[in-house]
Please model this.
Amino acid sequence: MPGYFKSSFLIRIYLPTCFVLLALLQTIHAQNYDEAKAGTFTLPELLVTQDGRKVTTIEQWEQIRRPEILKLFEDNVYGQVPKDFDNISFEITNEDKKAMDGKATLKQVAITVFRNQKSVTINLIIFIPNRVKHPVPVFLVLNHRGIKTMDITRQNKDDFWPSEEVIEAGYAIAGFDVKDIAPDDKEKFSEGVLGRLYPEQRAMDNGMRALGAWSWGASRCIDYFETNRAIDAWKVITVGHSRGGKASLWCGAQDQRVAITISNESGNSGAALSRRNYGETVALIVKNFPYWFCRNYRKYAGNEDKLPIDQHELLALIAPRAVYVAAAGSDLWADPKGQYLALQESQPVYRLYGFKTGLPKEMPVVDKQVIRPCMGFHIREGKHDMTLLDWQQFIRFADSYFKRKQR
Ligand code: GCU
Model:
């Protein structure tokens, strides 16, 4: 190899490759999977107001502390979620009353939201069971895995959205592709709602970003459910996996029309405690997915102790409605124990409402579900995914929750 070639090989290929590999190694090793190194931490007080008063009544929680926590999440993590728009329309673009061999009615609904002469359309897909003659509860999936997982022809069945099983259990199942609202992409995320309806949010340090936009979209689907008499709009169950789980929690925390909020393996900035040093960290998530969160969140990279909230408070915002957290044994990146601890730490607010939650102190063993009034948890064996087994637990939890409420 001639000398000039050797040196140009060194400069142009060998050295840059080494740097990239080193950077990669650094990222891989930046997270901790050793329980002994998860650290000790003090969580922000759930039931003490910012000016130091103890919260002992539902009234104090609802009028002072709950709004405070909600605002802290808006300003520091997910950004504001704008409430105003000029108009919303619902157009049934397709209907099949004999879908799934006559077991269900399929509806495709174009939900169009207008603001300042611009609009965005969410394409909602719903199957409603035909055999049930009264309005049914509905599972609404904030789906980031794409439309292919919700095949309306049912030729391709995907356990991520197991509509046959859900229909069989007497529930409606709905879903939308989060891309309709905000593309899940660092460069293009503002091509939907953010660019068209709420451009002013982009300039704000506490402005809405992708996770907020997806949760905003779920609320617009609930607006539609309120107009469909086959659906019981008091029994909406939001479901999201991973990034979708983070958005499901943020939606359930704000929109009090959600009856059950389900987070499947939502991990960091979802159900897992941020102060626990295990798996994904705030530093890693804001580096890899800056467009999911408001700009202010970046201040807490490597600085989690300074966060004015932690994720147990997000779960507490859902009270007195129900919350369900699911984890997977091999999904250490999402910190199963950190997710269970957050659920545990949210209990004081549920107790304020009189629920005897009494979650076991230790995280349940793999494949054992824990159901308490208003909260539930399971950890499934296996990797990061949303499977039929997860769905079977969601259905069991919803059955028990709605039955209990009827009594
Ligand atoms: C990445 C990200 C997680 C996220 C996950 C997902 O792994 O780091 O925070 O939950 O993607 O959405 O699948």
In short: The first strand starts at residue 87 and ends at 98. Residues 242-243, 267-268, 280, 285, 288, 333 surround alpha-D-glucopyranuronic acid (CB under 6 Å). The chain has a mean pLDDT of 94.
